Amino acid sequence: MTAAPDGLPPLAALETARLDWRRDDTGEEAPRSADFDDVYFSRHDGRAETEHVFLDGNRLPERFAGWQERRPFVIGETGFGTGLNMLCAWACFDAHAAAGARLHLVSTEKFPLRREDLARALAIWPDLVSRAEALVAQWPEPVAGVHRLGLGPRVTLDLHFGDAAERLALLDGRVDAWFLDGFAPSKNPAMWQPELFDAMAARSRPGATFATFTCAGVVKRGLKAAGFAWRKVPGFGRKREMLAGEIDAPPEDRRRTATPWFTPLPARPMQHVAVIGAGIAGAGVAAALAERGLAVTLLDREGPGAGGSGNAQGALYVKLAAETNPQSRVYLAGLLHSRRWLSRLDPGQSLWSPCGVLQLALGEKEPARQARFLARHPLPSGVVEGVSAGQAAERAGVETGAPALDYPAAGWVRPDALCWRLAETPGVAFRQAEVTRLEATREGWHLLLGDGTTLDADQVVIATAALANRFAQTSALPLQPVRGQVSRLRLPRDTPGLGRVVCAGGYVPPALSGWLTFGATFSPNDADGEVHESDHDANLAEFARTLPAYVAALREAGADLTRSGLEGRAGVRAASPDKTPYAGPVPDAEAWREAYAGLARDATRIPDIPGRHHAGLWISTAHGSRGLASAPLCAELLASMICDEPLPLEQPLVDHLHPGRRLIRDLMQGKHESASARGVGNSS
Q1: Tell me, what CATH number does 78's domain have?
Q2: Containing domain of residue 81, as a range?
Q3: Closest Cα to residue 291, out of 641, 649, 639?
């Protein structure tokens, strides 16, 4: 497939590895690539070879033992294969690193193994079984992109599925040590190209090391041309020599030359972060930061899950565009991330259910739109597939009357309970208080609270939905309040149930504790939190349009599907003008308007001026009705930015989420007025 219209690789399923299980020279069974006619490892000495080539070749035992940085030690790898190298690095880290140290693994893979092949391959190493189980449990679908896995309290793995050089060129992060692996250059020459070595160099920290099993001339020449110094060192077993080396002065990252306003901020020392807003966005950031060892104060004027995240049940779903665009990429990555994150956070599924989501093709246009989407996005059936009306009915457990897109990895979540769980993360201190003003200080930020008290923090994250632009530093961000009301029905005994969340104009998840939730209304520029009887009527009408047969069955069972039989809850969410969340550092709007004023006259004349930001001030908002799919990934994004880690999204998608993107768009279009002057957002 060719590149997508947004310039990124196609959003599609990858071809999985084809394995032959053969006896190696010791008589033991080991995996071999049928495509490259090469072994993944020798069962007899594969573990020892990994330790010699990659661990000792990068001096990892001694470097782990001496690691004192707050940020994690980062290992990059070209070719994940069975994961043996990374699991060995993890074991080495646990054996040598100090208790407070963290490890971040980044690995590319163009032909990921199937889950069952991965489990079979790693079962060979009994002493790695617990680590292998953590990997296999979270093993992602073979979808091109970045997949973040939390392997343990101190260890994170980012799997970048796709071509190694292409993936490293999109990586937003820097590496301390490289495992230059993959099938031999003679077997897989397409990988060992100058573009790969150049990408490695550009993503390296000064002094980053590398090690590789090969001494092939193409590798030596490529490394030298990219700026690495290499030397031959003793190889393993019958391989007399291998290569190891380092790069002292990596090349400057010039990817943002055309977008200097998105230049990343330098890391700042910190101990304490204040997070304002205890919905899914804020509580998620607070938990992610606390898990990294920071002290976090989580502030909310009411309590965790009191606002738009306070419903008893919500749909974990996405609606992807028929044509590939950055927004769809972010939301699909977010959906897959949320599924892994929830399975780790709540393996007993008391807070969520991965029951799947059916997006019905109702109306005249939706069937054609879904057909276009499927034609342009050949994704694995474990992610999404088109189903007939009959198949949809079978999966929903009720008659649907329409074909659908089925997302088996989606489902429903209890947002209110989830917010409380996140707020109780060790290291998070919740404080009920309203923040009225933010003042920058030499050391960080001074927060003035509604009760007259104050709080000081090194850094601040704002996550207060439609109220996020009420501060002087954020007033330029356009935000729109969107009111939504859900209706809840107490079901009679022996009522037929749903097997999937069903979506069309609204959503209906399977019942929870005898209550059926459906909705929600969508009222832009409305911040009223009261329940309206007219919205119950609208929800009933949409429910009947979506699942008329199910509504009839409920009535027959004695359900009171009238206003008087319903309870409800209204919440106010936030939306951005382009319906993509804001997640990143808060720009200094006046400085941007001054530095980039010339864009209004000629958008091609881009000044070489990095964008100024309010140092140590971050935001996560505008998650709208799909926050369960976007907010957890954005929480990881912000935590990674704050803690100087590789980011869980490709660099263009990180820029797509940047809170300053609308400022640049307005400048290019000659619009200079503030968000409040345009009558957008700033509601309080």
Answers
A1: 3.40.50.150
A2: 19-247
A3: 639
pLDDT digits (tens, 9 = 90+) for 353-394: 999 999 999 999 999 999 999 999 999 999 999 999 999 999
Residues 239 and 322 in one domain: no
Contact 486, 519 (CB under 8 A): yes
DSSP labels for 522-549? -EET----S--HHHHHHHHHHHHHH-HH
**Residue 8 — pLDDT band, cuts 50, 70, 90?**
confident
116-146 tens-digit pLDDT: 999 999 998 888 999 999 999 999 999 999 9
CATH number of the domain bearing residue 520: 3.30.9.10
Residues listed for the chain: 684
- What pLDDT, on a 0 to 100 scale, did the predictor assign at position 678? 42
Tokens of 124: 């060979």
116 and 231 co-located in one domain = yes
Beta strands in 248-350 (DSSP E): 272-276, 295-300, 314-316
- Decide if 43 is inside a domain: yes
Mean pLDDT computed over 297-316 = 94
pLDDT averaged over the chain?
A: 93
**Cα 641 → chain centroid:** 13
Residues 423 and 412 both lie in one domain: no
Phi and psi at residue 208, to the nearest 5°: -60, 140
pLDDT at position 526 is 93
CA-nearest of 669, 684, 609, 649 to 170 is 649
What residue spans of 600-659 are helical by DSSP H?
627-642, 651-657
Backbone angles phi, psi at 375, to 5 degrees: -65, -30
H or E stretch at 418: helix 415-423
Q: Tell me the CA distances in angstroms from 338 to 32, 221, 315, 331, 410, one per residue in order.
A: 33, 42, 12, 10, 9
pLDDT tens readout for residues 466-515: 999 999 999 999 999 999 999 999 999 888 899 999 999 999 999 999 99
Tell me how far the alpha carbon of residue 341 is from its chain's centroid. 9
Tell me which residue has tokens 């958008």.
Answer: 603
Task: Single out the residue in 540, 575, 610 at which a domain terminates.
Answer: 575
Question: In 3D, which of 169, 109, 174 has the Cα closest to residue 140?
Answer: 109
Which residues, including other chains, have CB under 8 Å from residue 493's CB and lie 6 or more apart? none
Residues 632 and 652 both lie in one domain: yes
Exposed, middle or buried by CB within 10 Å (0-12, 13-18, 19+), for 3? exposed
Structure tokens belonging to residue 297: 């104060």
In 248-356 the beta strands, taken as DSSP E runs, fall at 272-276, 295-300, 314-316, 352-353
> With 70 as the cut, is the pLDDT of residue 5 above it?
no
pLDDT in tens, 89-108: 999 999 999 999 999 999 99
| Residue 9 in domain | no
Residues 488 and 556 in one domain: yes
Residue 674's pLDDT band, with cuts at 50, 70 and 90, is: very low
On whether both 231 and 277 belong to a single domain, the answer is no
Q: CA–CA separation, 329 vs 205, rounded Å? A: 28
Residues 216 and 343 in one domain: no
Angstrom distance (rounded) from CA 504 to CA 511: 18
Q: What is the pLDDT of residues 259-271, one digit of tens each?
A: 999 998 888 889 9
Measuring CA to CA, how many Å separate 449 from each of 29, 285, 430, 434, 452? 65, 21, 14, 6, 6
Question: Looking at the domain assignment, is residue 395 inside a domain?
Answer: yes
Number of domains forming the structure of the chain: 3
Q: Is 188 a member of any domain?
A: yes
